[in-house]
Amino acid sequence: MNVLIVGGAGYIGSHCVRQVAAAGHRPVVIDNLVFGHRAAVAPGVPFYDVNLGDEAAVGKILADEKIDIVMHFAAYAYVGESVHDPLKYYFNNVVATLGLLRAMLAKGVKKFVFSSTCATYGIPEKMPLVETMPQAPINPYGQTKLDVENALKALALAHGLGFAAFRYFNAAGAAGDGSIGEDHAPETHLIPLAIDAATGRGPALQVFGDDYPTPDGTCLRDYVHVDDLSRAHIAVFPKLEKPGAALFYNLGTGTPTSVREVLQAVEKVTGKKVPCAGAPRRAGDPPALYADSSKAKTELGWKVKYNDIESIVATAWKWHSAHPDGF
Ligand code: UDP
C-alpha cells in the first residue's frame, strides 16, 4: 500500500512512518513542520512540506503518489491552549481535516486512519473505558477530535469512506533503537519532564495534585508505547477494504499507573532521583483514565509489546540520553 502519513514528522506520526515501512508498505509524509521535525522522518521517505488544509496541494500528492490509505496525525494537542484559543483548534483540527477529507474524496481515496483520543470521553463514570461509553469532552481539544469522529461517520454513510479512529490513551516511549523519540516544544508530558528533572536539564517535576481518590493520591493514566500504537494503525488495513467501515478502537495497555509510579520508574531506569514539588491539580485532569482495549485485541489481533511502565520509560530514556537537545 502507498500510505500518506499526514503529520509524519511529529511524535506518533514519525514512529508510524517507520512501522509502515517495516510492514512492507510505502510511506509518504506531509508535514508543515510547525511541530514536526524534518529529522524525524526516516531517510528516503518522500516528504512534502505542505499544510493539510491546502486541498489543491494535497490532492496533487494523493494522485502523484497513488495513495491508497491516509493516516492523519496532524493536530494541535495542548488541552490548556485549546481552552484559551479554541478557534486555532477548530480551524486546524476540524476545518483543515475536513479539507483533507474533501481532497481525498475528490481523488477517490476512501481509506482513512484517524488519531483520536481518550479525551473524547471527558470525565468518565466508569473505568476501564470501553468504546461504547458516552463521549462528553470537557475541553475544545477533545471536542475537535469528537467532531471529526462524527464527520467520519457521516462520510462513511454518504460516500463509503472506510475509516478507523483510534482513541489513544497516554502515548509514551520512543523507538527501541533510540533513533527517534518525543521532542515537543513546549513539553508538557510527564515522562520527558520527569527525565529532564532527573538529569537537571529541567526544573523539579511538579506533581499536579496528590489528593485524588486514587491509591497514592496522584492521577492514574494508561501509558502505551508509541510503537504499539503505531502497529494497530497497520493491523487495521484489511478492515478498511470494506466500503463504509466505521471503526473505533481504544488503544491502551489497560494498566493504570499513578504519577508517583511513573516517577519511581524514571528513578529506577535513570538511576537518578527525580526532584519533585507538590502543585495544585491541573484543570481538566480526571482522576483516572485507563482503557479496555479488548476490541482492538479481538478484532485486530493487537497485542502490546511494552507491557510495563519501566520498559516504556527505558525507551524514552534511551532517546533522551542520546539526544538531550532533541532533534
Ligand atoms: N503531570 C504532572 N506533572 C507534570 C505533567 C503531568 O503531575 O508536569 C500529570 C498529569 O496531571 C496527569 C499525568 O501526569 O495526571 C499525565 O499527564 P500528561 O500531560 O503526560 O498527559 P495527559 O494525561 O494530559 O494526556
Description of the molecule:
The chain is of the alpha/beta class. The chain has a domain of 199 residues: Rossmann fold (3-Layer(aba) Sandwich), CATH 3.40.50.720. 37% of the residues lie in helices and 17% in strands. The strands form four sheets. Strands 3-2-1-4-5-6-11 form a seven-stranded parallel beta sheet, sandwiched between helices. Strands 7-10 form a two-stranded parallel sheet. The two termini are 29 Å apart. The site of uridine-5'-diphosphate (UDP) has 14 residues, from helix 6 and strand 8.
Topology:
Layout: E1 2-6, H1 11-22, E2 26-30, E3 47-48, H2 55-64, E4 69-72, H3 79-84, H4 86-106, E5 111-117, H5 140-159, E6 162-168, E7 170-172, H6 190-199, E8 205-208, E9 220-221, E10 223-225, H7 226-235, E11 246-251, E12 257-258, H8 259-270, E13 276-279, H9 294-300, H10 309-322
Parallel strand pairs: 1-2, 1-4, 2-3, 4-5, 5-6, 6-11, 7-10, 8-13
Antiparallel strand pairs: 9-12
Helix pairs in contact: 1-7, 2-4, 4-5, 6-8, 8-10
The structure holds uridine-5'-diphosphate.
